[in-house]
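can u do me a favor
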């Protein structure tokens, strides 16, 4: 089987562009050498669990892509199983563009970045959202603390179709305030 992510994303138009720019043969060869990447391993679970934000792309009824930043405490995007993730949908600006798009078209893409270490993970999946009163059994209790504090309006579940680790080229390291403090403390600790 070919690499699952490229199987879904290398459309005829993409392959035509690859031919035009001379990368088609190398991309086809790469597709055959890479694993399927349709099940999350411990490596992906750990990476996802460390993220405090990601970008969510959905598709509107008019065909336009919509990208939304999602953030929370590390682990707010939770791996439920090797093929399922979920995240708490916190109260926001109340436009509901992502949720509206998901109700129309379930295909989504998540883009997770570890800026300090220049690593990024792309996920493709099928999403659905649940009101807190309608949570399926596998999601009950997963987001207990935030739900109890009334920060959460709904839960978004994503059934994984494929993922791919993206190259670090052109990714500028950036640090959150906590990452920067940890880096300074580590550096100072090594001086002692």
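np, heres the sequence
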């Amino acid at each position: 089987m070919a690499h699952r992510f490229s199987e879904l994303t290398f459309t005829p138009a993409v392959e035509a562009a690859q031919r035009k720019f001379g990368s088609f043969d190398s991309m086809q060869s790469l597709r055959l050498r890479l694993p399927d990447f349709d099940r999350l391993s411990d490596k992906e679970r750990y990476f996802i669990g460390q993220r405090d934000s990601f970008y969510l792309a959905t598709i509107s009824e008019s065909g336009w892509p919509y990208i939304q930043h999602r953030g929370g405490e590390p682990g707010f995007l939770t791996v439920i199983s090797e093929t399922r993730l979920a995240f708490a949908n916190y109260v926001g600006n109340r436009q509901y563009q992502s949720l509206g798009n998901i109700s129309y078209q379930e295909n989504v893409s998540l883009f997770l970045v570890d800026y300090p270490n220049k690593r990024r993970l792309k996920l493709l999946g099928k999403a659905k959202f649940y009101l807190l009163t309608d949570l399926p059994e596998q999601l009950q209790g997963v987001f207990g603390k935030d739900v109890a504090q009334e920060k959460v309006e709904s839960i978004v579940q994503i059934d994984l179709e494929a993922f791919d680790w993206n190259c670090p080229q052109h990714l500028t390291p950036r640090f959150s305030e906590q990452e920067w403090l940890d880096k300074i403390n580590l550096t100072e600790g090594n001086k002692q």
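Helices lie at 4-9, 12-21, 24-33, 42-50, 97-104, 144-148, 177-191. hope that helps!!
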